[in-house]
Amino acid sequence: MKKILFLFLLSLLTMTVAAQKFSWPPKSYPLSVPFIVSDEVKYYWGVDAIVCVGSENGGYKFLVMGRANHDFTSSRTINIYYIDADNKPSIAGAYYFPKVKAGHEFRFEIVSAFPGYTPVGFKGFCIYDERLRIPEEDTEAGTKIGSRTSDVDAAYHDSVRIADSIATVAAIEAERAARVVTAPKYPGGTQALYSFLRKNMRKPQIAIETAGYGTTTVQFIVTRNGEVVGADYKRRCNERVDKEVLRLVNMLSGWTPATKGGKPCDAVVQISMSIFPSFNASAQFVGVR
Prior knowledge:
The protein is of the alpha+beta class. Helix content is 25%, strand content 34%. The longest helix is centred in the middle third of the chain and has 21 residues, at 159-179. The radius of gyration is 27 Å and the shape is elongated. The model is unreliable at 1-20 and 141-163 (pLDDT under 50).
């Protein structure tokens, strides 16, 4: 994170400013809109201009234009942020940037995420992608793409204040990433889980003939090491049927653990099974611990 911010601050210290007047909302179209782009995005998409070309769906339509600096072989969702009068960012939306070939021009349209809304004192856009990386070999070789911007507002000369905006954006991205949770996964997926349960099930015949109708639910923990521990009943059907379901659950091993913020963690899972008159099973991810 510090390396990213350092490289971006370095680019801000060397950026140039075009002589044009900018006011918002637009009095006429087209209107060239100020922007700053992180080095990681700029490595692929050398954005030269963002132009407001009109209104659409109660909001505004923008044309993003430039020339590719390096190949990017698929489209990618990248966040674009509004910058307000205090150089503070707020999310405008996540937009698809097209696949590009080095040296070729690109252009695509975006529409403001919240119809009719831009911050008070809107000053332009910040394009930043926390997940994007410059290839290591180019970083080591010191490859740099010259900074591009289009703004006359004096605040854009103040690299420290803009860097504060970027730091805030980075903090927003880091906070969002820290909240991202992925569920644990049984080897081969859910259908493989159900297949294992069906294949290894031993029907307790006497229990079925007496009171084997219904569903047994067992809750357990998939540890950060992919092991099943702490299995216990959440719903019972019949003692012998319940024991069979618990036995099967305790046989489940080799899970890919859940993650929170990209790190493995313990997770709570429930499996529900009915044996009679026909086999049926379902699995539910309850949450992380």
